[in-house]
Design a protein that fits this description.
- The chain has about 230 residues and is of the alpha+beta class.
- It has a single domain (about 5-215), classed as 4'-phosphopantetheinyl transferase domain (Ribosomal Protein L22, Chain A, Alpha-Beta Complex), CATH 3.90.470.
- It has helices at about 25-30, 35-55, 125-135, 140-160; strands at about 5-10, 65-70, 75-80, 85-90, 95-100, 105-110, 175-180, 185-195, 200-205, 210-215.
- The strands form three sheets. A four-stranded mixed beta sheet has the order 4-5-1-10, with helices on one face. A four-stranded antiparallel beta sheet has the order 6-9-8-7, with helices on one face. Strands 2-3 form a two-stranded antiparallel sheet.
- Helix 1 runs antiparallel to helix 2.
- The longest helix has 22 residues, at about 35-55.
- The protein is globular and about 50 Å long.
Length: about 230
Amino acid sequence: MSTPALVWWTVPDPAALDHPLLDSTERARCSAYRREVDAARHATGRVLLKRAVAAWCGTRPDEVRVVPESGGRPRVVLETGTATPWVSITHAGGVVGVALAGQPCGLDVQDLAAIEPVIGSDLVYSALERDTLTRLPTAERRDAACSWWVAKEAVLKAAGCGVVEPMPGVDGRAGRVRLDMAGRRLEMVRLVVAAPEGHRAALAVQTAGPVDVRLRSLAGASSDLGGEDPAP
């Protein structure tokens, strides 16, 4: 049986800073950012996530609360007590994305133009990956480095540890990943998902089986959905 998953993309939306779906904690977090674009990314991610969860659960977005777990991974709860999906939020450059899945998941996106300084870094890539990158034609090297980066981050997010665990220990090239953490062996499926132009993205889900992913792109956090997605 497939694990259902949704991935929604949009752009950082300054209008989200005044969106009624933001609670007082989220507004305070936005106010703490020095740059408006960072505040807009945070607000957009929260609004987009609440709308996606509401579509998944068949409820209203204002009934969805986002609660951070100890490792920083977001968790969503409903006032009604209804079961909710696992979720992940990501943003980079001019893109904000959220993922929802029936199992723990991680979504990551990166701007291709911003990956150049870390290509070949031993803080990100294993010795074998670095060697492979040096052998690739210049035109392919940046794309591969970015794709492997997002794969690593997506897997670590799905594991609930973010980038606390060393990134070189995660094979960014593998479609299926086994990760040993705190005495647990986690089975991951890592998927390349379509991202807006100039970006690369990956979704990781804690499952040994197939994942059924549905994608949607919105013009902004407040844009018309054109019909909500049905519950999986």
